[in-house]
Amino acid sequence: MSRKFTWFNATALTLGFAFLYIPMIVLVVYSFNESKLVTVWAGFSTKWYGELFRNQAFLDAAWVTLKVAVMSSTLATVLGTMAAYVLVRAGRFHGRTLFSGMIYAPLVMPEVITGLSLLLLFISLNIPRGVFTIVLAHTTFSMCYVSVVVSSRLASFDRSLEEAALDLGCTPFDAFRSVTLPVIAPAVISGWLLAFTLSLDDLVIASFTSGPSSTTLPIKIFSAVRLGVSPEINALSTIMIAIVTVGVITASLMSKRALVKRQRDEQRAFQQ
Amino acid sequence: MRRFTLIAVPYLWLLALFLVPFGIVFKISLSDAALAIPPYTPTLDLSEGWAGIKALFAELDFDNFVWLTQDDLYWRAYLSSLQIALFSTLGCLLVGFPIAYGMANASESWRPTLMMLVILPFWTSFLIRVYAWIGILSTEGLLNQFLMTIGIISEPLQILNTNKAVYIGIIYTYLPFMILPIYASLERIDGSLLEAAEDLGCSRLQAFWLITVPLARPGVIAGSFLVFIPTIGEFVIPSLLGGSRTLMIGKVLWEEFFSNRDWPVASAVAVVLLLILVIPIVLFQRNEQKQREAEQ
Amino acid sequence: MAQVAPRPVFEPWNEPAAKPLIQFQNVTKRFGEFTAIDNLSLDIYEREFFALLGPSGCGKTTMMRMLGGFETPTEGKILLGGQDIAPVPPNKRPVNMMFQSYALFPHLTVYDNIAFGLKRSDMPKSEIAGRVEEMLKLTRLGKFAGRKPHQISGGQRQRVALARALAKAPKLLLLDEPLGALDKKLRTETQFELMDIQERTGTTFVIVTHDQEEAMTVASRIAVMNDGLLVQVDTPGRIYETPNSTYVADFIGDVNIIEGTAQPAGEGAYTVAWAEGQPALSVQSATELGAGDRCFFAIRPEKVAISAEKPADRPNAVQGKILDIAYLGNISTYHVELPGGVIIKAQTANDRRISRRSFTWEDSVWLSWTATAGVLLAN
Question: CB distance from B200 to chain C under 8 Å?
Answer without folding.
Answer: yes
